[in-house]
Specification:
It contains eleven helices and eight strands. The protein is α/β, with parallel strands linked by helices. The chain has an eight-stranded mixed beta sheet with strand order 3-2-1-4-5-6-7-8, with helices on both faces. The protein is 42% helix and 11% strand. The protein has a single domain, classed as NAD(P)-binding Rossmann-like Domain (Rossmann fold). The longest helix is centred in the middle third of the chain and has 26 residues. The chain binds NADP nicotinamide-adenine-dinucleotide phosphate. The site of NADP nicotinamide-adenine-dinucleotide phosphate has 30 residues, from helix 2. NADP nicotinamide-adenine-dinucleotide phosphate binds next to helix 2.
């Protein structure tokens, strides 16, 4: 088989894998990359719990996957990350139903929306993409630790984005209470938070056998673009073109298909090559380099800085009003 890379698909990443007996939970699984990740994992025998906030949309996604007669079982449950009370209720129910979780894919996300606030008043992108996932993951940690205790080699995958390069995390005003709101800046900061969270969570959970990765899936046409107008899409295209040195056929200027986009999530969740590793940012089915000035991919050092990761952890605990230790 050719080496995995930009064009690899979920099915290519999982070729020959046997995931029977493994349980995966995926947030934001009602469309796009999350739904494809669910399909791919179930196609190799995993039980997959699809989580989403809209029951009608979730049922439609599950029904579409069930039509494919996948070998893995498909379950589903509601999870709205923009309301911490709902996150707590969902986690309590899910922990009862699934005391062992082998793979947690924190995939849900919102991008470049107008200024909105979550139930607890967090800026919507930060609140959904990071704070909701922070609380959900910490609450589900006992189920991941149970997998580790049973030899399950559990992993958490946090969907970040190359958009983390729009900005370092803004510790002084994470919720845009003192700054003018800028939708791309807010998206970038939330995606930086996803990487910093991966670093801090890996440090805490690695001693318990749970490893954590952050992923940039690529550029993929999905419902994520629901808040974009023509000018936004043109700006994305020209940014990608300049990142690729103006070469229209360079991979950096191309959109991926959905199965190509979900491939790096599936790789991070299952690749034997990553055993014993963690706290890393992946793109195109490999561990990314530190970003270079030419904008050709990679991860910014401010997103993997261990001190910043610990600082975000403490802030996140304050925001959710709960501290976590995983003994
Ligand atoms: N597509 C890309 O080019 C791209 C690039 C870089 C990174 N990513 C990341 O990849 C992930 C998946 O995105 P996608 O492209 O597959 O987009 P998508 O099709 O819009 O899927 C996003 C999912 O997140 C869910 N979601 C949004 N807000 C939620 C909330 N408050 N609670 C629970 N679920 C919520 C959505 O549900 P509803 O439909 O009900 O809102 C949907 O199921 C995101 O984290 C995104 O930032 C994508």
């Amino acid at each position: 088989m050719a080496a995995l890379g930009f064009s690899s698909t979920t099915d290519e990443v999982l070729a020959g894998a046997d995931l029977s007996g493994r349980l995966a939970m995926i947030t934001g699984a009602s469309s796009g990359l999350g739904m494809e990740t669910a399909r791919a994992l179930a196609s190799r025998g995993a039980t997959v719990v699809l989580l989403a906030r809209d029951r009608t949309k979730l049922d439609k996604a599950v029904a579409a996957l069930e039509q494919q007669d996948l070998p893995g079982q498909l379950d589903s449950a509601l999870l709205d990350l923009a309301d911490l009370d709902k996150v707590r209720n969902a986690a309590a129910t899910l922990l009862d139903l699934y005391p062992r979780v082998d793979l947690l894919i924190n995939n849900a996300g919102v991008m470049a929306c107008p200024l909105q606030r979550t139930a607890q008043g967090f800026e919507m992108q930060f609140g959904t993409n990071h704070v909701g996932h922070f609380l959900f993951t910490c609450l589900m940690a006992p189920a991941l630790q149970a997998s580790a205790a049973a030899g399950g080699e559990p992993r958490v995958v946090n969907l970040s984005s190359a958009g983390h390069r729009f900005g370092a995390f803004h510790f002084d005003d994470p919720n845009y209470q003192q700054r003018d709101y800028e939708k791309w800046q807010a998206y970038g900061e939330s995606k930086t938070a996803n990487v910093l969270f991966s670093v801090a969570l890996d440090e805490r959970l690695a001693p318990h056998g749970v490893r954590v990765f952050a992923v940039h899936p690529g550029m993929i046409m999905t419902e994520l673009g629901r808040h974009l107008d023509e000018a936004d899409i043109e700006a994305i295209r020209s940014r990608a073109a300049s990142a690729s040195g103006g070469q229209a056929d360079s991979p950096r200027s191309l959109f991926k298909t959905i199965p190509q986009g979900a491939a790096t999530s599936v790789y991070a969740a299952t690749a034997p090559a990553l055993a014993g590793d963690g706290g890393r940012y992946l793109e195109d089915c490999h561990i990314a380099e530190v970003a270079s000035q030419d904008g050709a991919g990679g991860v910014e050092s401010y997103a993997t800085d261990p001190a910043l990761a610990q600082r975000l952890w403490r802030l996140s605990e304050q925001l959710v009003g709960q501290t976590f230790s995983f003994d």
